[in-house]
Amino acid sequence: MWLTTAAWTLCKSCPDPLPHRALRPYMPLLTAQNLALSFGPTVLLDDADLNIARGEKVGLVGINGCGKSTLMRVLAGSERADSGDLAWRSGARIAWLPQVPTLDETLSLRQVAMAGAQSSVSSLEPFERELRAERTLGRLGVRDPDLLVGHASGGARRRAALAAVLMEEPDILLLDEPTNHLDMAAVHWLEQHLQQLGCAIILTTHDRYFLDAVVDRIVEIRKHRLWSWPGTFSDWVAGRAEQEALEERTERNRKRLLQVELQWLGRSPQARTTKQKARIQRVDELRDADEKVESRIQLQVRQGGRLGKTILNVRDLTVGFPNMPPLVKDLELSMIRGSRIGVVGPNGVGKTTLLRTFAGEHAPLSGKLEVGHNTHILYIDQERSGLDDNATVRASATEAGGDWVQVGDERVHVVSWLERFLFASHDMQQRVSTLSGGQRFRLLLAQRLQQPMNLLLLDEPTNDLDFETLGVLEEALREYAGCLLVVSHDRCFLDRVCTAMLHLPGDGAWELHAGGFSEWEARMGHRDRAQAQAARQAETAAAPSAAASVRPVAPAKPTMPELKFLDRIDAAIEVAEGAQAATEGMLTDPAVMADRTKLAAAMADLAAATADCERLYAEWARIEAKNEAWQTWRDDQAARR
What is the pLDDT of residues 258-306, one digit of tens each? Predict the structure, then answer.
């Protein structure tokens, strides 16, 4: 199973390498000192330190390939660092969601989630665990929890694995790209859920809005070290901007000084006496520093010729699969120069199928799809297909595997071309199978952007990208004179790039809205509120006789786990209230009151016990109301007969 538990002894003499963490009164859950980790010639970490306190929510950031997922595996105990000390507080429990979870294919998605619930230390009855698993899977968009893992898509598997780690209720939760394969509603729910959790969290994600809403500290992997920034993602962006401005000024001063020293070295040898050895050494140091300047990705999307009058015209287009309800019905869409349309909607409504239809990979059920004669399409799918896992980075840069790349009128050596996409010289012989998701996307861009195009079809392009690459991609797409259709759940990306939103709510429906994601979201919220208000007014104004003449719609029937919950709720509440009373009693103990660590732990236990009681009462009220509505409706139907 991907869930791991560690109970290593904490080295109490270790100082906290993060000065602002000294403000927290709790002992760290995790202390890492002098961590070093390399893969061949590639150094990921060198002398890296990290402390994590109870309840802290940390966002782990850094460029693709810097070692974020590898550090997660080290913290989870799945891999070992080359050197350094890693210690956990005694008895600490860890749950880990890797990017690609390994699951038993004979289990159902419900059983995968239940495995996490059964590992929880909460005193829940089996039926309560089943009920929580069912509700969490539903919140994450799992439509068929009884589907076997072996028959489920990669997204459904990952959502079940995420449900499992959430329900384990560990002391520290490690989440590697938790928003991948989630639709907007599930991302919103996960944001709120993580905000309410009391455990420590370390997460990596490309979703900047999500990161800004959840974390209270950023840890950046840069130059093989871990750099800590207190505050939200926005605070980190502002702080990094100031730091980069300082580094740029320092770099300008270094280059000026190097120029002066080089002019001095160019004078006659008599001017360089033995007294000037230190000055010659300083020139060497300035030259060495020139090699340490960080590279930045260069990305330019070239437009493929002049766009004609017709780019992409869709009339009465119905998309889906034979003998099944259509995914998108009677779509009307005309792309004009500069159109950048984001496609949004729940999982499973046909967003990817629609892009594949436009790309010519999937036949429409009916309607007209017209692609202009001068329209050149580039389609990049979610799976980043088109790369040979056994090939090297250098060989993958060109289809023929040659030494030169022709980009328009420019002839570029393949190594120089790959360096524009942040591949170093020692990466050239690396196998594609060893690349991270972001590195694969950069390599795919290096391969595909050699050819001009004027209609881009991108399916979840931001998955696994670091923030620098995201920013460069956004800037390139905003400056792109062609057209763009993009499926993405990255709200920040949609806001910055798109000029319109194509919403697929399901059941074949579609809506086209002008503006970015935030404008569409605000418009939809306003419409939903207006519709709800109109429904309430119509219900109030309806005459009793008219209401009586309409056959009432059957309310939702309580599920078997919910009915079992009602049967055992009294005992569960009694146990929870007993735990609450016990923790309240601890707060009257003078020994506890005199010990700040014990007092903090007792207060945290009391808060957890109180929340458990409130949760049980809220669940009881919800299920009781649901059951009462069902019973009333059933009795009314019996009386009618």
Answer: 666 666 566 645 555 544 655 555 555 555 554 444 455 555 555 555 6
The widest CA-to-CA distance across the chain, in whole angstroms, is: 116
Query: 15: exposed, middle or buried (C-beta count within 10 Å: 0-12, 13-18, 19+)?
Result: exposed
Distance from C-alpha of 49 to C-alpha of 515, rounded to nearest angstrom: 44
- Tens-place pLDDT, residues 195-227: 999 999 999 998 999 999 999 999 999 889 999
CA separation, residue 327 to residues 150, 323, 347 (Å): 24, 12, 11
Whole-number Å distance between alpha carbons of 472 and 461: 13
**Are the C-beta atoms of residues 35 and 74 closer than 8 Å to each other?**
yes
Gyration radius of the chain's alpha carbons: 29
User: Cα 72 from chain centroid?
Assistant: 14
Give the pLDDT of residue 284: 57
Whether the pLDDT of residue 544 is over 50: the answer is: yes
Instruction: Give Cα 492 to chain centroid, integer Å.
Output: 12
Contacts with 388 (C-beta within 8 Å, 6 or more apart), sequence order: 396, 432
Strand-strand pairing, 500-506 and 509-514: antiparallel
- Looking at residue 539, what is its pLDDT? 66
Residue with tokens 């009151």: 593
Q: What does the alpha-carbon distance between residue 293 and residue 258 come to, in Å, rounded to a whole number?
A: 15
DSSP state of 337: T
In contact, 218 and 226? CB cutoff 8 Å = no
Check residues 294 and 457 and name the one with the higher pLDDT: 457
Q: Coil, helix or strand for 409?
A: coil
**CA dist., res. 367 & res. 329, Å (int):** 9
Helix (H, G, I), strand (E, B) or coil at 431: strand
Q: How many helices (DSSP H) and strands (DSSP E) are in the chain? A: 19, 20
What is the chain's length? 641
Q: 109 is written with which tokens?
A: 């998605």
pLDDT digits (tens, 9 = 90+) for 157-190: 999 999 999 999 899 999 999 998 898 889 999 9
Q: Please check whether residue 128 is in contact with residue 572, taking contact to mean a CB–CB distance below 8 angstroms.
A: yes
Cα 84 → chain centroid: 29
Q: Please give the order of strands across the beta sheet that includes 509-514.
A: 377-380, 455-459, 483-487, 340-344, 500-506, 509-514
On whether the CB atoms of residues 464 and 65 are closer than 8 A, the answer is no
**DSSP characters over 598-622:** HHHHHHHHHHHHHHHHHHHHHHHHH
Q: Name the E strands within 10-93.
A: 28-39, 42-53, 57-61, 83-88
**C-alpha separations of 221 from 45, 295, 535 in Å:** 8, 15, 52
Q: What is the mean pLDDT of residues 353-361?
A: 95
- State pTM to two decimals: 0.69
